[in-house]
Structure formats: C-alpha cells, structure tokens
C-alpha cells in the first residue's frame, strides 16, 4: 500500500487529523532542503510536499513564486530533487509528494521521470494544471510507477464533478480553500464549501490547502476536513530567516492545533 494511504488510514484510526507541509526544493539554499525536511518531520508533519520550482507557475502566489525563482537561480533540477528524496528514504518513511508543473516533467521525459521518481521513493504527484480530462494520457504511468495522482478541487467545482474527481484521485483529494493563489490573505475559507467537498468525496480523505496561515486557521479548517496543507506561511518563515528549530517548533504548534 502507498505510504500516503497507509499514513492517512492510520491517522483516521486514531481519530487524528493530517498535517501536510510544503517546501520549495532548493530554497533558501540547495543545502537547506534536507535539514528542513528532517526538522519538519520531527515537528509532527505527516506528509511533506516538495515543490518542483518552475518559472511560470499557474497557482502560486508571490511567496512561493519568489522561492521558486531563488531555487532555480541556484540551479535546482529535477534530478537534484530526486536526490533529496533518495537521501530522505535512507532514514525516513514519511510520505513524500512532488508538487509542480508539467513542463519540466515533459522536458525531462514523462515516462523517464515517473520511473525515476518512483525509484527514488516519491509517493505521489500534484500537478495543478493537469485537468481530469487530460490526465488519462498519464494514467498508465501513474499505475505502472505506483505514484498517486492527487487532483485538486476548488470552490468553483460543482459537487457532481467533485465526486468524479474524487474517483480519479489517489491518496487524498486536495481541496483548494479559495479561488485565489497560494498564500491568499484576507479570506475565510467557506466551511459550507469544505463540507460539500467532504460529502461529495466518497473515496479519498480531504486535505484543505491555500491560505491557511496560523494554528487557529488550521484548527478551524481541520475540524471540517481530514487534514490541512501549509505552504506559503511556512515558506515565509523560512524566507525571513527563522532557524530550523523555530520552523520545527511552529510545525509542532500546527500539529497540536489540529
């Protein structure tokens, strides 16, 4: 069984909510990623998403855009990201998901990438600009590699389509809390919408991301979902120079809150 599914099933059995944390691979430095992954896992993260930096992201706000720019300038590549995964796998079985965009994967060679990612120890992919209708061409690659295809739903997704996407998604259903980009501020995720997603999703646990900035936000959202995903707020702390220990302590606060 995939590590993502094993972890989420174990959490559900203990009546715990999942905490997924997003890091841009190669940010703030090439050498910082592995120590941060270790510290975030120690802090209580259940799943770690590694962002594959891309020059023209679709769904990212300025915080993650800037972190991607910094990582690209320092020379981070898909091979480097896979080397991070291989190193993590020497001492950890935490579920690892790569989140990013198709262009770098297509440039790498899709079949080659899927094989390399699975061999390195990646558990799943999140590709925000890959719609359900186009995902079929990669279906055999997901199946042959054992990688999960984690698909997003948004506040504009009709409930009937949420059910269809849930059937096609693997690992968990990524519930985008807002129609804005990552890190969007000044909004309050609709509990009614999240409840609709939970009701419509018959197959997968529902994890909510985008715009969750504080332990209080995480607690409020997790009460209505199976877990939360923290990205921009974590990247902001790293960008401002918080020590790894401070980052780990903040992750611990998030986990305790949910």
Structural notes for this entry:
The structure is a single chain. With 258 residues, the protein is of the alpha/beta class. The protein has a single domain (3-12, 20-257), classed as TIM Barrel (Alpha-Beta Barrel). It is 48% helix and 14% strand. α9 (159-168) links the parallel β6 (152-153) and β7. α2 packs parallel to α13, α6 (110-120) runs parallel beside α8 and α11 packs parallel to α13. The two termini are 26 Å apart. The mean pLDDT is 93.
List keywords for this structure.
258 residues, alpha/beta, TIM Barrel, 13 helices
Give a quick precis of the structure.
The chain is built from 13 helices and 9 strands.
Distance between the termini: 26 Å
Number of DSSP E strands: 9
Contiguous helical run count: 13
**What number is the mean pLDDT?**
93
Set out the fold topology:
Layout: H1 3-13, E1 18-24, H2 33-43, E2 47-51, H3 62-73, H4 78-88, E3 96-99, H5 102-108, H6 110-120, E4 124-126, H7 132-135, H8 139-145, E5 148-150, E6 152-153, H9 159-168, E7 173-176, H10 191-200, E8 206-209, H11 215-222, E9 227-230, H12 232-239, H13 244-257
Parallel strand pairs: 1-2, 1-9, 2-3, 3-4, 4-5, 6-7, 7-8, 8-9
Helix pairs in contact: 2-13, 4-6, 6-8, 11-13
